[in-house]
Amino acid sequence: MWGDLGVLGVLLGAAGGVTAALTPPSLRPVLGSSKGVSESSSLTEITAVVNVIESSSSAMGLRLAGLKQILRILEEEPESKQQVGTARAGLGTKCAGEKLVQVAVELLSTEVSEKALVAVMLRLLAVLMAQYDWRVPFATEGGVRAVLACMRHHSSSALVQQAGLAALKVLVGAADGEQGGGSGKSLPWNQGDAQMMREIFASIGSASSEGSASLLSTIPAALSTMQRVPGGSSGVQNGLLVVNMLMDGHRGLAEQLSSCDLPVVLQSCWRDGQSIGCPHAVLALRAINRLAEHQLPLGPEAAGREAPLDLKGVQMLLGRLEDDALSKEVVVALERQLCSEGSVTSGQVSQLLQDHSCFRLLLHSLELLGAEKAMTLSILRILNKFLDSYQEDALPWHECVEPCVSSLSAHSSNLETLLGTGVVGVGGMELQHPLLGQPREFLAPPQLLSAVAQQVLQEVVGFLHRLATASKDCVVVMCHVGTHEALSKALEKHSTAPSLAPALLTLVTDCEKYASLYKKLTTSILAGCIQLVLGQIEEHRRSHQPISIPFFDVFLHNLCRVSSMGMKEDKCWEKVQVSSNPHQASKLMDRNPRTYWESNGSTGSHFITVHMQCGVVIREMSMLVSSEDSSYMPCRVVVLGGDSPATIRTELNMVTILPSDSRVILLENMTRFWPIIQIRVKRCHQGGIDTRVRGIEVLGPKPTFWPIFKEQLCRRTFLSCTARAHTWCREICQDREQLLHLFGRLNQALQHEQGFADRFLPDDEAARALGRTCWEALVNPLVQRITSPDPDGVSPLAWLLSKYLESVELPCRAMGCRAAFDSCVRRLTQLLVHVDPGGPEPEETRAAGGKVGKNKELPARAAKAVVEKSSGLWGVSRCWRGVVQQQVQRFLEAAGQVPDFAERYCRLYQCLRSATEELFGQQAAFLLALGQGFAGALLQLSFLSALHVSEQLARYLDMQIQEFRRAAGSTGPLEQLQQFLEPFVVFSGLELAHTFEHFYRHYLGDRLLTQGPSWLEGVIVEQIGLCFPSRFPQDMLSNLAESEELQRQFCLFQLQEQDKQLLELDTGLDEVLRTTSVANVPEVKVLALSPRCWPVSPLCYMDNPGRFFSAALSSPLDEFANFCWRSQSQLGWECTKPRRLQWTWLGHAELQFGDCVLHVSTLQMYILLCFNGSEEVAVEALLQETGLPADLVHHALTPLTNSQGILVQSCTPGGALQLNQAALAQASGHHLRLLPQQRYLRTEKAEVSALERKRNVLCCLITQILKVEKQLQIDNLVFRVMDACQKGELGPGVQFLSFCCHSVDVLSCILHLLNQGYLRRQEGRPHILEYISSKPTTPPSSQVQPQVAFQTVEIKTASSLVFAERRKTFSTFR
User: Fold this and answer.
1) Relative to the CA of 1082, which of 33, 56, 1094, 1161 has its CA 20 to 30 Å away?
2) Per-residue pLDDT tens for 111-161?
């Protein structure tokens, strides 16, 4: 309707600026603003406007503005609910609806000459009547007559005609029949009101006097006017909708409109619509059919009989049939024009009735519209007209047999159901067909239905009898499609049999022996042809000579081509079972959408089980539902398949059904046979419990000879390829170099089969079947043989790949014979892994892994298909894994102790990674095999070798990370980060990962404490996080973030304490400012780190910071300690063991010497601050004062005393230190970074002894536990040892520093003690261990106090530095 308003707006604008009128000032106080008008107040405002309009003093402009204001209010309510005016605003006893209806009728009656007012009023009516149920009161008050009178008065105005037709469309309730038009829906229109509206129009038409034109003539006149207006198709469509609604079931109105030149207008609309392709052509044709239905003349030139269409009109009808959506109107019109006497000349009939496209389109329409009896009768009458001019080879008459038999079965089933259920009325065209002998108003609905079904049966039997009499070949087809059974069932359901039925049954029975003979002859001939074809294919494969049979490709194409019809329901399934009410199960397959099966049970327990005929692969399965069922309508349906009733577990599809659906496709284009299909209704709409299903439709495969031919072709191909594969395997066993020729042989064989498939096979499915057979028979046996090891333990493919890797390492590999060798190897491997002959069937793939967690069982065929597809790929990937493992083992043996081991290891990984991509591409299976090969080689390392490898790789990774951090502003190195970290990912899942994590977290701790946190560290840990089984690096980064948050809280706490102190002082602001020191206070930052994940050596402990630093630096540390203690108290931890802060030397600081800034460590800061009180500092004094090891102090002094350092160390005993004034003067105004190069302290000396001591502790714990328990199960022993390690004690007598260990570490120590003879397994119970030696394996427990680097200790904090006076001394400011 809003499309109509758009056209009206254009016409109003063209009529002289009527739409530009503004609201007069006199209306503004009454109306206010219409913006934001609520739905509840709209009627009130409309009422106020109506009061102004109906006042006698209102001018025309004011009335027009008021109508436009009402229109604006209504347009701002996009979807008003149905309302009847009940608002009272000074109207006395009259409601708003009655008042507005009276005003509208009065304006249209009295102001008929005012075109602008009439146009706006008609537009307002179209909007108003669509939103409020005031159509009947408006019509009874004379509104329809007023509208028609205004349209007649302004017959030449396109504006008024367009507005009038739009208003009439809403008044008669024709808006719902509009095709694709209208944005809003009009209010519901019941049949009683619609019939009343028709009677009002009929009374208007009959009230006209003789000699004067009827008011109804304005409707055809308006149609003619809008036809001549450019862009007036919307008006024409509205008028046709009105005409169709008025003539529907009302012969009197049809006669009155027919006398008003309506047939001529309809013919013109039909021709114009066909010529320009307008959508109103179908509406015009529908109106013509309604005139013919009432047996009225279709034109003035043919009074008393139908006006014929010329041959062009008939061809246009056929053009409509060529569309995908077949129209009932077209079928009825075509029947009328072809089957009525004298409609078309004999020459035109003979030309039309030999048209193949028209014949096939009629058969297609019979399939689509066959459920409607009237359409079946129309099509059968047209087909009988075609049969009048029968010629044997002119048309494919055999194709019409099966549709006719199907319609016969469907209508017989519908009749039985409708009469059995006592249907009392059916609407639609079925009861309005003009060909019924008895008028419908004198028949009860069941009798009428019986009459229609009887006539359908008579037409079908008559047509089939005529066809059988004319062609014996068609009788044979009738025997094949089951005409005898269908006709016998139909006769049982009808009391009166057609006169030709016995004759038809006799003809079909007599031809059954010929049908059997034809079937046997066809089978024999096809079998011989298939054997001939297979022999030629085998000869072609062996000799590579062209096939000499003429039209060989044409024969194969027709042999494998499917028929145009699929297998119907009754041939697809054996039986149907339901969860409840089994007596209603037959209604699911009766092809009648009016009947249904209703379940009885709880929600989710309803199912329908269909047992399929053996070998029938479903092409389409659909379910019929109806929105009329409301809460009984299914909402969620799951389709399952199984091989037996006990194995219905494989989910094939899940479908959500919308409330508007009527036919839902459940399955389509299945590629395997499922013996049992079960449809489970999981949920119904609106929370319903029971469900209703209107029907199940099953369409089977289209018949074809391809399965027979496919079986024979694949069997012979398999035998030929198997023999060829056996010969090649024998040659490879004798000489491995024959592998180099395997690519050429395989490629030639596969190209030969591909060429045959491209030239002769009809479709892709046939080619895929041949390809799978060749792959399974030729490639899979070859892959299995070349990947199986020879007696010397090396497979032929592994030997070839090793040679390829040796070739890769040689220089100038792309030159000469070596390049040809590499190319041959690459082509072979890519052929073996990249050629895909086709995977398993789609639903099998879904069952195998498409929906994890829903499939309870993997079907045997699906599992077999998946295994066969992946077996060759798995064999090649396993071979590549062995080759990689061998290469890595050789490298570890040769370069395990070289200084640049880690760099060489990464180069080896990149080399093998490149080789993997060259040979196999980006296949995930081979990238996984690469990692597994590296892991397998690393697992062969001894304990100490794995320890050394872990430390070397962790150190190399630390160096590279520092390089990346220095190049943080450059994008080049960062782009290589992921590629650089890839060699380390192979450690995940290995025992080596524990030692690698141990060393990595030491280097990570050094970087974080000296250089601070960085986003790069988080990215790296995320990339190689699988290499850290204990997740210590992740915990370190998380703890560092928590520590920084604690530092921020401490700063806020300091500010609060300072504010509190100032508040307690009763002094003014000026005094506070005078007493405040202007000295710079150093910034002190403390990091409180967890000992569980941070590795800190006890060598770095600082007992009391106040001994070494001034109060400016030490007092913030004390305050931080008090802050932590208070935090624990507030959290309720005072009853637990308080956490103690252990200070360390592992911080960093910034010192200022003049205008030079020095970046140093905490220990370096302490050394430099000593020069504030002395010009010379002895190294021995530093060692005695700090108590630190000499190597730690010398490590800190190295950057300070080098050639460019700021300190000079004398050669005297004790090593006195002095300031290097020259270096300090040169560094004036610069920043000097003097931090020592970080390294894991004493790594070289402690890497072996640390883990050896860890092993000794574990061995001691194992022996101590077994001494007490005597014997213990292995798993229990491992648990108790790990628990003791976490607690740091084993009873009151054995205490040590706690540490984390892995079950692999404990099992390794158990195997060591078993090999040493200290433990033994019990005979008969090998999982039970017992201790057999009294000699201790380790020092006494009192000596087991291993303070080693891999153990975690107390909390460490990094403090900041001291403050000194502003002079030429070192000053700490951060």
Assistant:
1) 1094
2) 878 888 888 888 888 887 877 777 888 888 888 888 888 888 888 888 888
90: phi > 0 → left, psi -120 to 50 → alpha, else beta; which?
left
Q: Where are the beta strands (DSSP E) in 1036-1120?
A: 1101-1102
Q: How many whole angstroms separate alpha carbon 1044 and alpha carbon 1040?
A: 6
Give the integer Cα–Cα distance in Å for 411 and 414: 5
Residue 908 near residue 816, CB atoms below 8 Å: no
Strands 1141-1144 and 1355-1357 turn out to be parallel
Q: How far apart are CA 956 and CA 959, in angstroms?
A: 5
Q: Which two tokens stand for residue 1350?
A: 């891999």
For the residues of 1347-1372, what is the DSSP string, one character each?
--TTS--SEEE--------SSSSEEE
From CA 1097, how far away is CA 1211, in angstroms rounded? 31
Q: Is 1030 helix (H, G, I), strand (E, B) or coil?
A: coil
CA distances from 63 to 69, 117, 630, 683 (A): 10, 8, 48, 57
Residues 811-837, buried b or exposed e (16+ Cβ, 10 A)?
eeeeeeeeeebbebbbbbbbebbeeeb
By CB atoms closer than 10 A (0-12, 13-18, 19+), residue 1222 is: exposed
Q: How far apart (Å, rounded) are the C-alpha atoms in residues 601 and 741?
A: 69
Q: Please name the residues in contact with 1151: beta carbons below 8 A apart, sequence gap of 6 or more.
A: 1157, 1158, 1160, 1165, 1168, 1169, 1361, 1370, 1371, 1372, 1373
Q: Pick from 1087, 1098, 1091: which is nearest to 1148 by CA?
A: 1087
Identify the top-confidence range among 1005-1019, 1117-1131, 1281-1295: 1005-1019
8 A C-beta contact, residue 695 and residue 624: yes
- Strand pairing partners for 1089? 1356
- What is the C-alpha separation between 675 and 642, in angstroms, rounded? 6
Tokens coding 140: 């009874």
CA distance 1045 to 1230: 32
Both tokens of 1106, joined, read 């106040």
d(Cα 360, Cα 337) in Å, to the nearest integer? 19
Distance, in Å, from the CA atom of 1328 to the CA atom of 1337, rounded to the nearest integer, reads 21
Helix intervals (H) in 1091-1242: 1111-1130, 1162-1169, 1179-1186, 1190-1201, 1221-1226
Q: In what order do the strands lie in the sheet with 1216-1219?
A: 1176-1178, 1216-1219, 1207-1209
CB atoms within 10 A of CB 1327: 11
As a dihedral over the C-alpha atoms of residue 1196, residue 1198, residue 1204, residue 1209, rounded to 10 degrees, the angle is 100
Q: How far apart are CA 435 and CA 343, in angstroms?
A: 17
Rounded CA separation 397/353 (Å): 13
DSSP per position, 1228-1248 = TTSEEE-PPPP--TTHHHHHH
Report whether pLDDT(684) > 90. yes
Say which residue the tokens 């066993």 belong to: 733
Structure tokens at 760: 């002769």
Do 133 and 81 meet the contact criterion of CB atoms below 8 Å apart? Answer: no
Kindly provide the residue ranges of all beta strands, DSSP E only, lying in 742-900, ordered along the sequence. Answer: none
* Winning range, highest mean pLDDT, from 388-392, 1078-1082, 1220-1224: 1220-1224
What Å distances lie between residue 253 and 290, 605, 1230, CA to CA? 11, 55, 107
* Nearest Cα residue to 615 out of 661, 668, 672, 561: 672
Question: Can you say how many angstroms the Cα of residue 1136 is from the centroid of all Cα atoms in its chain?
Answer: 54
Structure tokens at 604: 């989710």
Name the residue with tokens 């190319």. Answer: 823
pLDDT for 458-512, tens place per residue? 888 888 888 888 888 888 888 888 788 888 877 777 767 788 888 888 888 888 8
Residue 42: count other Cβ atoms within 10 Å of its Cβ. 21
